[in-house]
Amino acid sequence: MNISDFFEPFIIRALLSGIICAFLAGPIGSVMIWHKTAYFSDTLSHSALLGVVLGAFLGINLNISVLILLLVLALVLLKIPQRTVLGIDIFLLIIAQTSLCLGLVGLSFLPNLRSSLEGYLFGDVLSVSMFDIYTMLIAGLLCLYVLYKNWDKQLLCAISIDLAQSEKINVVVQKRIFTVLLAVFTGICFKTTGLLLVSALLIIPAATAIKIAKTPEKSVVFASIIGCLSIILGLICSVIFDVPTSPMIEIICCIFFLFSLIKK
Amino acid sequence: MIKLKHISYISNDGFTILDDVSFDVPDEKITTLIGPNGAGKSTLLKIILGILKPTKGELIKPDNYTVGYVPQKFNINTVLPINVDRFLHLCLEKKDNNFEEVLDKTGIRNLLNRQLSQLSGGETQRVLLARALLRKPNLLVLDEPAQGLDPIGSEKLYALIGDINKNSKTAVLMVSHDLFVVMKNTDNVICLNHHICCSGLPEKVQTLSEYTSLYTHHHDHCHTLHGDISHEHK
Fold first, then answer.
1. What is the value of pTM for the model shown?
2. Which among A260, B104, B129, B134 would be 20 to 30 A from A241, CA to CA?
3. CB spacing of A162 vs B71 below 8 angstroms
């Protein structure tokens, strides 16, 4: 293993896309945990493959078809009443598994894409193009701007929906805003992390940061830093030991989480 | 003052939670709602707060009438790390001009730098009360404020609510199960079990058979299991 290998353009692109994902996962993952809707992200990410398949069938850009499917699904998910006999988590799990299986079945009719299944499931950080990175950067900045504008309202909704509502905050709008952000995040990041590991990058750094932070903002910054460190270390480990990248990133995230448990 | 006129509320699954409820919440007075679990007390508060829309009837509120809400502390999510000071300032529109006064009144100055998640029950309740007061409400709505507090803590809290009512002329509407305390501190009692069973001054209400039977509930009419009124006499 030569040190100059780390400066190959495809490694730099992988690093850039990973850092954008991890940076964005900080605020979005933190708010998701505070809203106690962590299971939402799995449902959305498992459906990304169906977006790929639909895009291929319709002959449109795959990034766009994934994004559209996720946005539609996200808004449909919000319509599920919170109190159902089975519980919303069961619904979400069924939707997640079904859309993943629909995606897998659909993919078998698309010989061109079939070979890239592993990349969709576990991420193909090394095949990210410069165009992908520009898209991620623009969409990511938009997400951050929207979240920044609604930050205090999102916090109050997380603390108490009733309190927020009694103070004339439109909680339905706030919920929609956040779900759309989550869908956009999943859409731009699943190529890097793989659809099975989107939630890991969202949840684990944010859960680690909550343990050590004293303010919501610090929690977000810590989550982004932990995510970025995991990306960098995971990528280095995967190059050195020749192991798959995004599982390695997940494992590094988890090591940080374990350290946060030991502290105190 | 707020007027409720023939308010009914039917839940999504067709269950009548409130049935033709009418009363006024007078200015500068303390009104207490009592009633058994599932009687629709919290639903009624949510309608007054504008969180729920009544299925039938109307709520008449003067212009620029602000309602401050103190939710049950069990509904407060403490997963996120946030201190009391930041929590009090979240989304606060009216600027700080009564901040110091509210801190002194509720005695939470020493809690400002504490994490919201690490407060005791009584402290949380006082912080929530302070947040409601920062909005300079015309009416303060409290949902079982003393739930989970020890007897001394709950007595102090009710005394604080009484002081706020007297000193700042804020009307108070609260749900409470502490009947003994309620009768001592309130101006007006409303007994609710889907409909209003009886209401009036505490001394008067206490003598009514509807009051004594509220929690066992045998009055001039009977209820089906769903709380609907059936006119067959038992």
1. 0.87
2. A260
3. yes
